[in-house]
Structures are given as C-alpha cells and as structure tokens.
Design goal:
The structure holds 2 protein chains of 2 kinds. By secondary structure, chain A is mainly α. Chain A has a single domain, classed as HPT domain (Four Helix Bundle (Hemerythrin (Met), subunit A)), CATH 1.20.120.160. Helices cover 80% and strands 0% of the residues of chain A. Chain A contains 7 helices and no strands. Chain A is elongated, with a radius of gyration of 14 Å. Chain B has a 6-stranded antiparallel β-sheet, with helices on both faces. Classes of the chains: A mainly alpha, B alpha/beta.
C-alpha cells in the first residue's frame, strides 16, 4: 500500500491525502511522521491512564493524539480522540470515558495497522 | 548585527510536549532557522534562560505536562522576556477565550492545529521581520535619548581637549582610551557578572574615561611637557594629577549627572592604582580599585605604550600587549589581562581604523540591544509597533494636509519638520537652533520665532495651546500662516518638565485677504489697528463739533512707491510695511490723536497742535519716513489746518488731499501745507502715475 492508498483505505471519500500533502509538502515527510505516529507512546500512556482512572494524564495523552492526528489528517482518529479529549477536559463521566476510549482504541488500531502496511 | 560573513542562523525555540509536533516544525523551519526544542514549559523556560539573547522566536504549545503554555507566558511576562521574544502559540484549542487569553498575555500570533507548513513558515518569517524592524525603531528612539546625552558628552570632550592641548598629546589619546575601555568592559561583561556591567554602565564608563587626566590641568606646563624623563621631585608633582582630578569632580554638583560624576571621580582618582597595591594616590589593592579605574588604567597604559612620547618610541601593538601581559607596565587584575588577551586582534583592527573615524557611534547599537532585553524604555514592543503604525499614519496625513507640521525639542533646541513641511519651506527636516538658523530666519523673523518660543514656554497644562498668525516668507513672498502649537511636558504632576512642543503652520493667506475686505466694514482696520476712514471721519466730525478755539491739523499722507514694493516683495511684505508705519504712529503720537488708514497706503492723522503746527508736522513726517527691512519708506504728505483751511471735515479733507497732491507733484517725500494756490488741482483720490 502506498500513502495515498493508505489514506483512501481509512476514508475512501475523503480529501485527507491532499490535505496532508499540501500541509507537509512531500510524501517523504508524511511517511516519516506516520511512522513516528505508529511508534508514539501517547496511546500507551492514554491506555494506562484510563485504566488507572488518572483522567488528568489521560486528557493530556488524548490531547496529544488529537493534535498529531490533526497534523497528519488522520480524521478518523482525530475525531474520536477529540471527543474523548472533550469528555476528559471537565468532570469526566467514567462510563462515557470508557465508551469514547473504546472508539479511540478501535480507530487507533485501524490507523496503525494501516501505517504498518505502508511500504 | 548582521554582516555578510557571519550568516548565523537565527534560533527558534519550539516548546511542545509531542516529539512529533516538534519534529514536524523542525522540518518546516529547519532550512532557515536553527531549532531548539523543549518538551514542556519548564524546559522551555530553561532554554530561554540559557539562550535568551539568541532566540528570535518561540513556538509554544498550550497543553503540556509540567508547565503549560499559559504558565510559560506568565513566567515570560514576569521575567520581562515577553517583550523581547516574540511568541507564536500553536494549539488545537480554538475557543476564542483561549485565543484571547493568549493575546492578552502577549503572544504575537496564534496558529491553530493542524498547521500548514507554508503558513507556519510565513508567519514565523513575518514575526521575526517585524521584530527586527521594531528593534530598528527602538534604535531610533534610543538615538533620541543619546541626543540628550550629547550635552554631557560635549562637556567631557571639551574638558579632555583642554587637557590634551596642554599635554601636547594628539587628540587620539582620549578617543583610544575610550575605545579600549569600552572593548575591555564588553569582554569583561561576557566573562563575569561580578561587576554588574551592562551597556548603559559601559557607555558611561567609556564616556567618563575621557576625563581620566583632567587633573593635569593643574600641573605646571614645564613639568607636563618636559622633554625627557622627570626627576623624582617632578614625578611626585606629576602624580598629584590623579587626586586633583578626583577633587575637581567632587566639586561638580550636578544632580542629574550624579552617576556619571561618580564614575568619572573613580577613574580620575584611581587610574594610577595598581592591582598589587603599589600604585597612587591611595595604594588601593585588588578589588578595592573600582573596576572602572582598573579598566581605564589598562587602556591608558596600552595607549601610552603604543604612542610615541618624547622619552620613548611607539611600541607595536604586539609588544605593548606583551609588556602588559608580562607585568612590565603595572599590575592588573588577571581577569582583565585575560580580556586584553581575548580582544587583542580586534583591538588592533579597531585602533587602526580609528584615525579615520569621528567618534565611537556604537553605544547606540548596544544600548538598543539592552533596552530590547530589559525593556528599560517602559514601552513594550507592541507599543512600539503601534507607535510605528501611528508614525506612518501621521506621515501620511501630514503629507495630505498641506500643513507645515513640526516638533520642537527644547533640550536639543531642535525643530523637526514633516517631510512635506520641509519641502514646502525649502529647508532640511531637522533644524538645530532654529532662532539662529539663517534659513529659518529668512522664513520667519528671529523676533517672531523668539516670541513664539516665549509664548509656548509660558503655556501651562490647563492651557497648553498657543495660537497666532505669522507671516512666513516662502519662495521670496510673505504669506500669512496660522500657527497652532501645543506645549509638551514630561514627568509627574508635581514635577513637570517642559520638553518642547508640537504644532503646525497652516496657510491662511486667502483667509486673511478675505478678512481684510470684511474688515473695511468694521471700525478698525484689522491690519494696522488704526481707525478706518468711516470711523475716523465720525470721530473728527465729533471733535470739530465740540471744538472751541483749539487749533488742529489734519494730515493726510501716503507712502511713495508703495505699489512697487507690493509688486516686488509680495503684498504681505506690503502689509508689513503698513503695519510698521501704523505702529510708528501709535508709538509716537498721543492716544487721543486720531490715526486712521483711509485707503490702501493712505493714512490720516488728526491732532491738536497747540500753535507750533510746523514743528508737529515735521515730527510726524520724521516718525513715518524711514526704512523697513531695506525698503525705504518715503512719504508724501499734505496738511490742512483748523480753522484756517476749514472747520468741517469735507473742506479739511479736501484741502489736505490737494496739499498731498502738491507734495507728490513736487517730487514726493515731503510735506506741504495747503494754500489757496492748490485750489482746484487734481486730487490724490484720482489716480496719478499708476498709483491707486
């Protein structure tokens, strides 16, 4: 799979590929940061913080993921992590957090799997 | 300072907890800038502290562990860094409260995520350029401050020149000592915080260094300029110059210059002390010697070594440095020796180029940097940006308004005109000592300028505005201008300090001409303040009706060749002549005498003569005839006497008119009394030889 195909695989109708290219300029950079994203520890941090109900750290990690995804036009994960971030920001409801985190986890898997299949 | 050789990349500090974000930014900006990275607020602050002066811009994330973006901004505000380091905030937080808070805390720009490479690059470039421009603007402001210090600088120069003149040294010694002092101090400031050196202090010490030998004024010239070595006794006398110089400064009481005098005192008294305690006059040792004196001592020795003296040749730069380093010429602070070692190449170059240079102009630059760092100006960069904007706006409107706008600075006695105003008047934009400036005096009389200056000076905060009408000579012709000036003060309410004024001249020539015609209706002639014809007549008729036996004379006169003066010098000049004549009348005649301007250049005087009418007419003639600004005022005058030539206004006026005509015909510049032979001659009121 190349990069364009990767973005299409996540959101067939979307313009994310064009977006990220215009933002970062070259495929080399996009690919570099996608790889970094897959190796980023933020998700692990998030998972751990959620498990221990440390919502402050969870907010931080979720916020970071959201930021990264926005920069990389990973809309799928950006949306779900954004929803989680907002829930975590003020008086998070544990049940809600769990539900939103599930979505993030799912999307994160899709995205990272996709990234790993990029040649 | 940017030079072609040192293309050093500017540094940008990226503070973001996400390694990836930092990396992306680094990729976007890495080509043009050197990127410093910090992964949270605390680290960011640490980086600022470490690289404060080198950071051209900071990119700051909001949500971060340890210390978030807003906390970083708070610290930067407290530490004064916000004024010197532009901050662009980058965040996914787009709520307006966030953005506003960021701006309130002094960020220059806000970029929301996801950011676009091109946008980031452009905004970063713009911000850095803007700040560079502000620095330049600050430089301009600083130069104005330095302008004020010129006076003390001047004093120093005069004094040191006196010393050098008596010493028979070249004028360069003082300049060299000053330069060396400055360079050594700068190096010293780099090496240690111990002496609390900053640019202001360095500039002050460098300036004061020029006074180091001022005590020599009191040394006998024979000793001072003795060819060959001094005897022990002579040397003892010579040595007193240090203490004497100090005493001289102790006696200077100028509160404003307190710090400067103190520094100069230290330098004068102790610039012959030695670090090992074997110097004079107080045998101070080590750090007992103020650092100012230590540095000047070294500079003095270096310059003495490299200069030719009657008793020794000039040593080379290398030899001089070597001798000082080896302790052959005095004993110095090891740290200072290190400084000398460090700057020796630079010093050599600097002094070689010196002979061609007028005065060290580098303070302004360094001072600017300092102001920049510390915000000493009390004006934030944002304020300066606004100022710059205002300046452009002002310049634009000024050029449109066709007004001669100016600023006057009293300390410098300097007028600054807007570009348009200067061009219109045909002078420079900056004029020093305007009252004594030849070109200015051609435009506006010195007395008028002094009058304006006096009036502005008298203004107070309740009534700061002074207005008036003044004739300006533009392109050789006088034109009326309305003046509006506002006096300016600085300082607190109790201690206001007059600093100058701002104001403008607006061309009002047309208005005045129009007013002139309107005024004819009114009682007084506005131009001269005399009665107009109508009212003079009323008044004279009243006097005549109440008259008993008192004899009166009615004098009618006009100015010879007045029309030519008008044609040649402009009608405003003509007006000035008329005013001049009127003033002469008012100054010299009695209040009760009726004085009137009855036509263009035609005047009428009606006065009681008490018998000696001939003497009186002669006197009036002499009062009026004369000269105004190289224009010769000739007067043709006709006189009718009451009751001899009539007892009613009509007859008297007619008689005087005919006598006046006779004077003209008789060759002008004379007076004639009416007699019957004149009867039936032409009247002045009917034009003759082109005069109205």
């Amino acid at each position: 799979m190349n990069i364009q195909e990767f973005y299409a695989s996540i959101d067939p109708a979307g313009k994310e590929y064009e977006e990220v290219m215009s933002r970062l300029g070259t495929e080399r950079l996009v690919s570099k940061y996608l790889k970094k994203m897959a190796d980023d520890k933020s998700f692990a941090n998030l998972k751990e913080a959620i498990a221990s109900e440390n919502y402050k750290d969870a907010f931080m990690a979720s916020h970071t993921i959201k930021g990264i995804c926005m920069n990389l036009s990973l809309k799928l994960l950006a949306d779900s992590s954004s929803a989680l971030t907002e829930e975590l920001r003020d008086n998070p409801d544990p049940a809600q957090v769990q539900a939103l985190f599930k979505q993030v986890e799912e999307d994160y898997r899709i995205v990272t799997d996709g990234i790993r299949s990029i040649e | 300072m940017s030079s072609m050789k040192t293309v050093k990349k500017k540094k940008i500090l990226v503070v973001d907890d996400s390694e990836m974000n930092r990396s992306i930014l680094a990729d976007m900006l890495g080509d043009d800038y050197e990127i410093l990275e910090a992964c949270n607020g605390l680290e960011g602050i640490a980086e600022i502290k470490k690289h404060e002066e080198e950071i051209a811009l900071m990119l700051l994330d909001v949500v971060m562990p340890q210390m978030d973006g807003f906390e970083v901004l708070a610290v930067m505000n407290k530490g004064g860094w916000i004024g010197s380091i532009p901050v662009i905030m980058i965040s996914a937080e787009t709520s307006s409260t966030h953005v506003n808070q960021a701006y309130d805390m002094g960020v220059t720009d806000y970029i929301s995520r996801p950011f676009d490479g091109k946008v980031v690059r452009r905004r970063v470039n713009n911000t850095i350029m803007l700040y560079t421009k502000q620095k330049m603007l600050q430089g301009m402001v600083t130069e104005q401050i330095l302008e004020k210090e010129k006076s003390s600088s001047l004093m120093v120069e005069i004094l040191s020149n006196i010393v050098e003149f008596r010493n028979g040294e070249s004028g360069l010694h003082v300049l060299h000592v000053r330069t060396i002092t400055e360079m050594l101090l700068k190096k010293l400031a780099e090496k240690t915080d111990k002496y609390e050196m900053n640019h202001t202090r360095i500039a002050m010490i460098a300036l004061a260094s020029a006074l180091h030998d001022i005590g020599k004024i009191s040394i006998d010239e024979k000793i001072l300029n003795k060819p060959g070595r001094l005897t022990d006794e002579e040397f003892e006398i010579m040595k007193t110059h240090a203490a004497i110089g100090g005493d001289m400064l102790m006696n200077v009481s100028d509160r404003r210059e307190e710090e400067m005098i103190k520094v100069a005192y230290e330098i004068c008294r102790w610039h012959h002390e030695r670090y090992d305690g074997r110097g004079y006059p107080d045998r101070l040792k080590g750090e007992e010697i103020p650092v100012s004196a230590q540095v000047v001592a070294m500079a003095d020795v270096y310059d003495a070594l490299t200069s030719k003296r009657v008793y020794k040749p000039a040593f080379s730069h290398e030899k001089a440095v070597e001798m000082i380093m080896n302790g052959e010429c005095g004993a110095f602070n090891p740290l200072l020796l290190e400084c000398l070692q460090d700057i020796k190449e630079e010093l050599k170059k600097e002094l070689e180029s010196h002979s061609t240079r007028q005065s060290p102009k580098n303070e302004a630059q360094s001072m600017t940097t300092e102001l920049f760092e510390k915000g000493d100006m009390g004006a934030s960069d944002r304020t300066l940006r606004l100022l710059e904007k205002e300046r452009i706006k002002y310049q634009f409107f000024a050029s449109m308004s066709k007004e001669i706008q100016f600023e006057y600075n009293v300390d410098a006695d300097m007028v600054e005109l807007t570009e348009w105003g200067a061009r219109y008047l045909g002078v420079e934009e900056t004029i020093m000592n305007p009252c004594d400036d030849e070109r200015m005096r051609r435009i506006l009389d010195k007395e008028k300028m002094m009058e304006i200056r006096k009036r502005v000076r008298k203004a107070n905060a309740a009534n700061p505005i002074v207005t008036g009408a003044y004739p300006l000579r533009i392109g050789g012709e006088l034109r009326w201008h309305k003046l509006v000036v506002r006096a300016m003060w600085e300082g607190s309410e109790e201690d206001l300090h007059y600093t100058g004024a701002i104001g403008k001249f607006v061309n009002a020539d047309e208005d005045y001409k129009r007013m002139d015609s309107l005024e004819k209706e009114a009682a007084h002639d506005t131009l001269t303040g005399l009665f107009n014809h109508k009212n003079a007549r009323k008044r004279i008729e009243m006097i005549l009706s109440e008259r008993r036996d008192d004899p009166y004379s009615l004098i009618l006169f006009d100015l010879d060749h007045f029309k030519e003066a008008n044609d040649q010098y402009g009608h405003l000049f003509g007006d000035e002549v008329l005013k001049h004549v009127a003033k002469k009348l008012k100054d010299n005649l009695r209040k009760d005498d009726t004085m009137a301007r009855v036509g263009g250049d035609e005047f009428m005087v009606f006065l009681e003569h008490g018998g000696n009418y001939e003497g009186q007419v002669e006197r009036v003639f002499q009062i009026v005839a004369g000269e105004y600004e190289n224009f010769k005022i000739g007067v043709s005058m006709g006189v009718a006497l009451v009751p001899k030539d009539g007892e009613d206004y009509e007859s008297l006026f007619h008689a005087a008119d005919q006598a006046l005509y006779a004077s003209k015909r008789g060759g002008r510049n004379q007076y004639k009394f009416y007699d019957d032979t004149m009867k039936g001659t032409l009247s002045v009121l009917s034009p003759m030889d082109g005069e109205e």
